[in-house]
UniProtKB/TrEMBL annotation:
Lineage: Bacteria, Pseudomonadati, Pseudomonadota, Alphaproteobacteria, Rhodospirillales
Homology family: Belongs to the peptidase M24B family.
Protein name: Xaa-Pro aminopeptidase
Record-level GO cellular component terms: cytoplasm
One Pfam entry name: Creatinase_N_2
Domain of life: Bacteria
Record-linked CDD domains: APP (cd01085)
Keywords linked to the UniProt accession: Aminopeptidase, Hydrolase, Metal-binding, Protease
Residue intervals of the Creatinase N-terminal domain: 92-222
SUPFAM superfamilies: Creatinase/aminopeptidase, Creatinase/prolidase N-terminal domain
Ranges where the Peptidase M24 domain occurs: 395-608
Residues annotated as domain Peptidase M24 C-terminal: 618-678
GO molecular function: metal ion binding; metalloaminopeptidase activity
Amino acid sequence: MMQKKDCRLTYQGDAVLAGLLAKAGSVYTVAEIRSLIAGVLGSAEERDPEAWCVLVAADPSPALVAQLLALRDDIAHDEAPEPIDAGTYARRLAAVRAGCARLGIDGFLVPRADEFQNEYVPAANERLQWLTGFKGSAGNAIVLADRAAIFVDGRYTVQVRAEVDGALYEYRHLITEPPEEWLATALKPGQRFGYDAWLLTPAQVEKLKTGVARAGAELVAVASNPVDAAWERRPAAPLGPVRSHALEFSGKSSADKRREIGEALAAEKRDATVLTMADSLAWLLNIRGADAPHTPLALGLAILDKEGQVDLFIDRRKLVPGVEAHLGNSVAVRPMAEFGPALDALTGKTVQVDPATTAAWVFDRLEQAGATMVRAADPCKLPKALKNPVELEGSRRAHRRDAGAMVHFLAWLSAEAPKGGLTEIAVSDQLEAFRAAGDRFRDLSFPSISAAGPNAALPHYRAAAATERPLEPGTLYLIDSGAQYLDGTTDITRTVAIGEPTAEMKDRYTRVLKGHIGLAMARFPKGTTGGALDVLARLPLWQAGVNFDHGTGHGVGSYLGVHEGPQRIAQFADTQALMPGMIISNEPGYYKEGHYGIRIENLIVVTELDLPGAEREMRGFETITFCPIDRTPIELSLMTADEIAWLDAYHAKTREVVMPQIEDPATRAWLEAATTPLGA
């Protein structure tokens, strides 16, 4: 293993490049990096967390980043951590059952979660995928001695049947038949059902307890996870680099944030709060990491007291030179192993803990310590969602640059698709290359959903060598993608007609577009929740007797998570008002199983409105995503005059934003045509 330069690129055993470590100094060439990575891929040490390649300096060139990301995606698409054969999942299920027997339990819950309640979990925490083969972003499995079931929501009902063996697992709907309901009839009186208290929140434990009790069984927190015990060659915990996030991007110092949160705790007569969400740590401390896929998170835990002092529990090896100086004397860096004893030391203190985002293990430990717990939202959650002017302007800049990459991509697609031969992976790789060439680009913000024809009917489809389809005439191609830039996070979906769409496709596409426009044009009084606006996006589809099974909008971070709370737009009840400064997606869709899928997504910012004659404080949306919306599938007869005017104005603004970034004459001509007013 080479050690000739003091800078590192972490390489995880699951064959995905985890992130860049840096130092000031010279940079290896692409050829050297490829050689070094190739050496690691063939190395007997590839599972060793200390087997790191020494590779690259602090700010690699866009070309170098593009090469690394392309290589990473090639590995992710084409290689698996270990061979998977027809009997692999049966053997794994049997091993977990044997582990349950050794622990004296009759069953066990396997959620897709880690101890930090992240959406995108490190490879070491992909327990659900390892056990069942399911690759979706949400779900649970239940293992009993004689039965097993997997629970997914409406986004994954088709995908789960393709990825999980129905002879091993019963398919269940996570919402209409949740795990606690299934357990109420599946368990027998007197049985003991186990769970890992690090992987569930108290609310989730209470739901389980209700179902288990109805069966006359007992719910038990296990001392060790039977999946971990059965998982041979489990990837190592991530050791991605942690860097400071500059004030020019964050807009507010960590000291000011800590002081404000501390003062809020003191005003509520609370001594401290426990923070376990990695994006809260990133926001509060103005740091960014590389422990989670596509999200710049540093996995750790923290205790913040009312004086604004922080104990940060994290592996110190992750901190690049200068980070501890950035954190300052008010932040004590401590080993993860000291977190439990630190909770014990809160005896007699009043501690705020978020029951929606904090592991049940923390609550159990605080209760044992004799602390007084106040169950309340993570105090960083709302301030993080309310972007300050610097963050908002950064997001606008990032979206403008992203728009240039998208237009280059769509123009390329328009020229190449008619020739034939394009496939899902090659197309998304091309988009990634366009993005990687841009300023301040760091990574994708999530694995691109590149879906042609029937694959687009799976809302969270991920292309793989075994499943990808060609882009064929007469079909729709859906690309849902985004990027992480130092100054903002993007997320955009476009659906493109390859050739001539059918009349039904045009009808559904236009209804999705109408819903998108209806939400973008919304005006609403202060205090309105996203749930109250959701119908605006769905009404045109409902009028045709169709719907979609995912939320309409999710919050988005500032060089952080592409999915961020507490704001959202969805059908279910919601108590969080939409407030100025929040960034949220606008993404209605339609999916016809086995045929095609449609989604149109922009990001929008909640703004204050000054309406003449208004009797209440009013709010609206500013669209910050700029990219042509395909005009080919629009059925103009379904559009109202106001909708046509909105789209024409949006395309005019897109042309204004993007044209100065385009030098290639063919791409400029494509953009001009793609943003021509409807009916022109």
